[in-house]
Amino acid sequence: MRCLYIFNRNGMCLHYHVWLRSLMTLSPQQDQKLMFGMLFSLNSFTAKIDPVSSGKENNPPCSFYSFRTNTYKLHFMETASGIKIILLTDPRIGDLREALMHIYSNIYVEYVVKNPLYSPGQPFRCELFNMALDHYVKTLQ
Amino acid sequence: MVRQLLTDFEDVEEVNKQLDTMGYNIGIRLIDDFLSKANVTRCSEFRETADVIAKIGFKMFLGVTATVSNWNADFTECSLVLDDNPLVDFVELPETCQGLYYCNVLCGVIRGALEMVSMRTEVKWARDMLRGDDAYELRLKLIEHVAEEYPYKDDD
Fold first, then answer.
1. I need a labelling partner for B8 at 20 to 30 A (CA). Which of A12, A68, B2, B109 fits?
2. Is ipTM beyond 0.85?
3. Any bridge partners for residue A10, and if so which?
4. Could you tell me the fold of the domain covering A3-140?
5. Closest approach of chain A CAs to the CA of B65, in angstroms?
6. pLDDT at A61
7. pTM confidence score
8. In what order do the strands lie in the sheet with B119-127?
C-alpha cells in the first residue's frame, strides 16, 4: 500500500495519506491537481468510448476502476455524491473495489461525515480516521 | 429545538428559513451516509430518484415510507405523501405559530442531499397535518441537473 487520496466533486483534495512513497516529482498541490484532472478526463474518456452502452440515459454511466503500470497500480472509486477515493498500491495486488467501498462507508462516512466538527468541502485531519484507515489497510496486506 | 428557535427568532418566517438551512446542512452530510448504506446506483431519471427517496431514504432515516404521486407532465415535479410523520409525535401548533412549518427541516435535508448528487431542487410542504390538512405532503420540484464541471481553470 503506497498512498491514498480523497477528493470531493469540486477538485478539493480532502485527504492525502502516504504509507510508502519514495519518489514525489511535483509539489503536493500540483500533484493533487494533476491527479484530479487526470481522473476527471479519464472518467469522461472511458464513458465516451464505451462500445457496449447503448447511449441512452437508462444505463448507469461507465466508469474505470483501476489501471496498472510496471511499478504501481492505481485503484479508483467515485460515489454519486462526487467523492473520489484513489489508492496507489503494489502492482501485484488484485481488485480492490470492495476495499474502496469499505473505506468509504465504514471509515470516511463514520469518522469524517458524521463528525460534528467537520465542514463538508474542506480538507480534514482526523486521528480516528487515520487510525481506522491504518488498521483496515493492515488487514488487506 | 423548534421551540428554542421560536424563542430566539420570534418571527415564524425566519424560523421556517432557519429550519430549512439546518436541514440543508444535515442533507449535505446525510447523502454520504445514505449512499454508503443503501447500495443504490446512480439514478438515471428523476422518477427513480423520487422513488429511492420515498422508499429507501425515508425508511432508513425516519422509519416510515412515503408514496410518490401527482407527477406533472414532464416528470420534473411530484408529491411525496407521508402517512405517518414521526417528527410530529406529541406536537400541536398553538395559535401564535400558525405560519410555522414545523417539519421544514425535512425540506432542507432533501434539498441538500440532492444538491450533492448534482440536482437542484425546490422542496416545499403542500399539506401539513399540524396546520389542519389531512396528510403530510411534500412537493418536490427538479429545477435542473447540474453537470459536473472541471473545476480548475486551464491557466497553468
1. B109
2. no
3. none
4. Beta-Lactamase (3.30.450)
5. 22
6. 66
7. 0.84
8. B66-69, B77-82, B136-145, B119-127
